[in-house]
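yo, Carbohydrate ABC transporter substrate-binding protein, CUT1 family is done. seq:
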Amino acid sequence: MRLRRLLVIGALGTLALSGCAPVQSTSQSSGTDEKSGTLRVWLFDEVNRAPKEAVVAEAVKEFEARNSRVKVDVQYIQIASRAERFKAAFSDAKSAPDVAEFGNTDLAGYVASGGFTDLTADVAAWPEGKDLNPSVLETGKVDGKVYGVPWFVGLRALYYRTDVFAELGVQPPKTIEEIAPLARRIRQAKPDLYGISVGGKYTYAMLPFVWAAGGDIAKQDNGKWSSTVDSAQSRAGLARYTELLKDDICPPAQCAQNGGDASVQQFVSGKAAMTIGGNFNRQAVEAGAAKGKYAVVPLPGDAEGSVAPAFAGGNLLGVLKSTPRRTLAKEFMQLLGGKQYQEKLYRAMGNLPTFSDLQRTLGANDPFVKPFITTSEAGTRFVPATPAWAKIDAQAVLPNMIQQVITGARPIGQATSAAAQLMNSAFTS
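structure:
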């Protein structure tokens, strides 16, 4: 999802993105495959729904023209009430849609509930399916099986003020290790600016630092998950991130409580020289104090020339297991989620497509998008694909860990060990 809508990422993000706990379900295949009737579709509502609605209406018109005995009924549901809506749909086929949009961090819980059908063979047989970005497609998988087609992806990169950099004669960092010294130098020269705006609750800005250091938050062995947030590599990455939350860069008094929205807003309002923001933040930045005075580069990795792995927020399109019109549902999902309409949504809303070839084409024609495409091509990462992530996310395990370190409540070793214990408890519960 995009920043506001990445309740997964989420987007997504943020894009904090949140998940939904799995619900008990008796959802089963209908055993039928009707070729006529009403095809019900659930999509997420937007603050400004008109651009999305126009693109979807065009897809509906095309689909109904191909299938004269089919009527497509699109309902726009509120993100905040999605857990209750999907719980009811999984329990009662009569209230369920045939096709639905949902956040990628909600996927594992929905699959555990038996709500969505396995699309592995469908994607493999879909001509456009081979062009889906492999690392983004992973966000639609659970245990190696595809349950959702990535509809758009939300990625983050490094925004910076070109006027400030020019005035100070500095260049964007070439490695992730260079970020803190550069940010410190900028704040020393311009005390009215944060060197970089990040936050104690900005999990999806912290994760690339952990991944770039060779760490991770969890691993899966023989189908079982366990936390690795307390590994030496993960602690090294966390140390680099929390170094940014110091008085001489981004003071904890102002930044400790910030998530993604608040961190990016500091840059938007002209109070920061850098931030880690998403492709979905473009409109806000263009409307703020940095308009015409900013650029974006991929967040650098551990070695010069490398890119730090980014969290792949975003939304998926899936087919409900209970649908009595599986073929029609699959075909509409592939039309709406295919290259033609992903590009239309990009033009209308700025949603970053999930097809590698389409990404490259857009990146070649739009300098703003290119850093995000480079980030995507370098390989993205994701949260653990397990229903337990919803509990970990709801408990704010990782944000609390970050805040403990930056406030001095606990040293990194103790904070990461405590977080690992909470995560492992969720994984085994």
